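Pipeline run #58 for the internal structure catalog. This entry was flagged by the ingest filter as a single-chain record with no existing model, so it goes straight to prediction. Upstream metadata was stripped on purpose; only the residue string is passed forward. Reviewer on rotation: M.T. Logging verbosity set to normal.
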Amino acid sequence: MSTPDPVAPITRNEPLREAVYARIVTLLSTGRLSPGMSVTEAALSRSLDVSRTPVREALLRLEAEGVVHSSLARGFVVRPLSDREVSEVYPILAALEALAVRSAPRPLETAEHDRLAGLLDELEASGDAVARRALDTAFHTGLISLCGNQHLQEAIAKLRTSLSRYEIAYMQHTPSRGPADRQHRLVLSALAAGDRERAAAVIEEHWHDGRRCIAEWLSSERGTTAPSAGSAPARPHTDRAS
């Protein structure tokens, strides 16, 4: 799976508001916009070749979702990484994704299994953090799509967007993902066997383990500074009181 260009031109057949929002989310999830970085309407509108209006709408939407916050001096700022947010959001995501897996109305079909297994093959073989994060997201999106509950899928997607800045930063500095990869396989095996309860239990454990790993990583990195605009997202800035 090739990683798409985060700032690929927006085509005429794309709904502009959603396209701009999606491009900014991709910039966040690939680390191009990292925690603590200033984000201006003018710079994004030039980069995406659109007017400021859809950019501002997208940034306000991301502010409502807790991903950025507005600053009189700096426009918008990508929210710093927060111990509190990790402790609050990951358990919600664990519960919702377990619910999605548990409520799938039918067994996993062969074509679905093969597609998800293919994503895991690529994920496990990739050494690139951006590609791994994209593949991980594609796998989890495929899992939750099985439930057929659009409201539940949208709620989970919103949480994943909020956590994207944690995931890409963590993956860039912690290349070993063996335990998470094994849990993915266990979930897929359980679904293939028709054991949705087992799959739900493993996916819940998966997210709780992820919360613990990121919390420990944030603790080990605390005290470093946030990257400035245009710099590589080397180390996270942490803010204990989100």
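catalog note: The first strand starts at residue 38 and ends at 39.
catalog note: Residues 82 and 240 are 5 Å apart (CA to CA).
status: ready for reviewer M.T.
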